[in-house]
Amino acid sequence: MLSGIAQAALATTVLAPLTAALLAALLGARWPEQLVRLGAAIACIGFLAGVGLTAVLLSGTETVIGTGVFSLQVDPVAAIMVLLIFGVSAVAQTYAVRYLAGDRRGGWFAAGASLLTASSAVMVTATAPVGIGVGWTGAGIALCALLATYWHLPAARDGVRRTALAFVIGDVALWSAIGLVTLDASADGIVAAVAAVLIVTAALSRSAQIPFHRWLPATLAAPTPVSALLHAGAVNAGALLLVRLHPVYDTAVAGALAIMAGTATLLYGAAVMLVKPDVKGALAHSTMAQMGFMILTCGLGLWAAAVIHLVAHGFYKATLFLSSGSAIAGLRRDAAVPHDIAADGRGRTLARSLSVALPTGALLTALAVIPAAPADHAAEYALLIFAWVTGAAATWGWLRRRPGLGGVAIAASFLVPAAVAYLGLIRAVGHFLEPALPAPAGPSTTAWVVVAATVTLLTAVATIRYRSGGLHGAIYTRVLAAGHVPTTTTGDHR
């Protein structure tokens, strides 16, 4: 009986949002607000179904429906992805109930959001490359439709054109790879290498990686709920594709391509994010950099790190986009009250505090997590980079408000237990995901060289935000210009 209920829940996660999308497409012009509410309600139900499917999985049973190329299965990776998809969809569509109140395009949004949810659910639960491809293409079509919500804006049309071009290239590459694998099940040698490179190309296009990086910053004219669905969900599909199609993708050439593109995009996106003066522009390039890290970890074979980062980034970025209006309001309030730290005599004290912020954050985090870290889980070591960056950033932000050794002591009292809890969570989730992931790559010289070089370069780039004049000013200007995406207009909506 439990198995039957679980199968019904899995079918619901696909059929319910698909039905909502069809209803919204047919009746959206007549009942836009009601259909937005329906989409939000179905997403909430899908999230509860995902919780149930995860509970069934924890009891030792994997839920399977369908057969052949359209078989759907809930394994540990799929369970977490279903929770992410429906969690983000529920939050974004609930937010849209008020955001799009009285807007005649509400029905269009409801149709696109529900189609994106259903297609993403198919992609993460499909067991065959054809099923993954169907979900992948459906999600791309839905996303382009969502970006066209305000088609009358020239900036929106420009964003849709750029996105559609990148997605078409990626879809052609993916379906070509699926065709090669389907026609030659025992593909090896040159055929396997070509298929693997095509799969990486598809992942790079969907995740806005170099050389496909221009489409993401061009989508800022989209309404805020669409931006949340895009940045928190749709762009994550690239890393997930590499995880799901690992048996085909796992070649040295494809791995090298993923490492190079991911590292380059990580550095580029982080650099532009630091100099972008607008909130949404900075968030867009932050997403690009985060996707670069995910692609990089896939190229290094750190699968657990990629999936855990994918989930964390999804919820984190949805929150940032949906609260971007409040952030802008806060910046305007701050701008109305000028404040010069140096003028009130605290500049020198703050400078001394900041000089110890990064080493303090790094040292405390290392002391807390490295002794407990297992030697055979390179993915957990990779995620310690984020623990270090977060600890250093938190220490820096705190010391801006509480300069001095007292502030350092207070930061330490919170940072150490937080780092231990972080490592414990990463380890627990990693063990849960392990049965559904490829064998993790052990620590290697290549991995640590790439990681060390990336962290060093990011640290160097970060200085351009806080220094001016001379070389720093020149670098700042060049990076800002590099992140500019020319459009026919700068028009935006809300």
Features:
Proton_antipo_N, mainly alpha, membrane, 494 residues, single chain, ND/Mrp_TM, NU5C-like, two-stranded antiparallel ribbon, 19 helices, 75% helix, 3 domains
Overview in brief:
This protein has 494 residues and is mainly α. The chain is 75% helix and 1% strand. It has 19 helices and two strands.
Question: Topology of this protein?
Answer:
Layout: H1 2-27, H2 32-58, E1 63-65, E2 72-74, H3 76-99, H4 106-125, H5 129-147, H6 154-183, H7 190-206, H8 224-232, H9 237-244, H10 246-249, H11 252-275, H12 279-299, H13 303-322, H14 324-336, H15 347-369, H16 378-401, H17 405-433, H18 445-462, H19 470-482
Helix pairs in contact: 1-2, 1-4, 2-3, 2-4, 3-4, 3-8, 3-13, 4-5, 5-6, 6-7, 7-9, 7-11, 8-13, 9-12, 11-12, 11-18, 11-19, 12-13, 13-16, 15-16, 15-17, 16-17
Description:
The protein folds into three domains: 1-127; 145-324, no CATH class; 345-482, no CATH class. The longest helix is centred in the middle third of the chain and has 30 residues, at 154-183. The protein is mainly alpha-helical. A hairpin with a 6-residue loop joins strand 1 and strand 2 (72-74). The chain contains 19 helices and two strands. The radius of gyration is 23 Å and the shape is globular. The termini are far apart. The protein has helices spanning 2-27, 32-58, 76-99, 106-125, 129-147, 154-183, 190-206, 224-232, 237-244, 246-249, 252-275, 279-299, 303-322, 324-336, 347-369, 378-401, 405-433, 445-462, 470-482, and strands at 63-65, 72-74. Residues 70-105 form the NADH-Ubiquinone oxidoreductase (complex I) chain 5 N-terminal domain. Keywords: Membrane, Transmembrane, Transmembrane helix.
